């Protein structure tokens, strides 16, 4: 994503990516819910692509606001619109979100694109006290 060596491989065919990108097993979301010890009000899915995990998070955490963060505007154009979802065009390492906003941060098969040193600093900044990060 914002790794200086990153080449945007997805924007040119984002509609195909959105159509054929597989979703994730339901058990992932069940396990995350079972792990949490407090109510989740805001979830931030970083590197959300065209929203595969965002949609499932929104369905499993109906009372929460889900924010998908993705640097490719073409990918975000393909992301499904839902009442409890918003999307932000931004880098993983510089989301522009307020400090301590996220009760839960997720990264679904995207962390390998991140500048990890800067990403973990951003996680520290936007994760609420007692918040959880789930990466798969």
Order of helices and strands: HHEHEHEEHE
| Euclidean distance between termini CA atoms | 17 Å
Report mean pLDDT, rounded to a whole number. 89
Strand content: 15-25%
**Secondary structural class:** alpha/beta
Continuous helix count: 5
**Unreliable residue runs:** 1-6
Query: Roughly how many Å is the radius of gyration?
Result: 14 Å
Strand order of the largest sheet: 3-2-1-4-5
Main beta sheet: 5 strands, parallel
Shape: globular
Proportion of residues in helical segments: 25-40%
Number of strands: 5
Tell me about this structure.
The protein has 136 residues and is α/β, with parallel strands linked by helices. It has five helices and five strands. Helix 4 (73-77) links the parallel strand 2 and strand 3. Mean pLDDT is 89; it is low at 1-6.
Secondary structure blueprint with pairings:
Elements: H1 14-20, H2 26-35, E1 42-46, H3 52-60, E2 65-70, H4 73-77, E3 85-89, E4 102-107, H5 116-126, E5 127-135
Parallel strand pairs: 1-2, 1-4, 2-3, 4-5
Please name the defining characteristics of this protein.
5 helices, alpha/beta, 23% strand
A few lines on this structure:
With 136 residues, the chain is α/β, with parallel strands linked by helices. The protein is built from 5 helices and 5 strands; from the N terminus they run ααβαβαββαβ.
């Amino acid at each position: 994503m914002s790794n200086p060596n990153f080449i945007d491989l997805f924007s040119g065919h984002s509609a195909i990516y959105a159509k054929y990108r597989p979703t994730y097993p339901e058990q992932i979301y069940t396990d995350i819910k079972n792990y949490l010890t407090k109510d989740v009000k805001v979830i931030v899915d970083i590197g959300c692509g065209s929203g595969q995990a965002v949609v499932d998070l929104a369905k499993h955490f109906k009372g929460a606001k889900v924010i998908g963060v993705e640097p490719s505007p073409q990918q975000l154009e393909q992301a499904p619109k839902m009442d409890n979802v918003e999307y932000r065009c931004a880098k993983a390492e510089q989301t522009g979100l307020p400090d301590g906003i996220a009760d839960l941060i997720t990264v679904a098969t995207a962390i390998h694109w991140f500048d990890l040193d800067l990403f973990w600093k951003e996680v520290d900044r936007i994760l609420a006290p007692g918040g959880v990060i789930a990466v798969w």
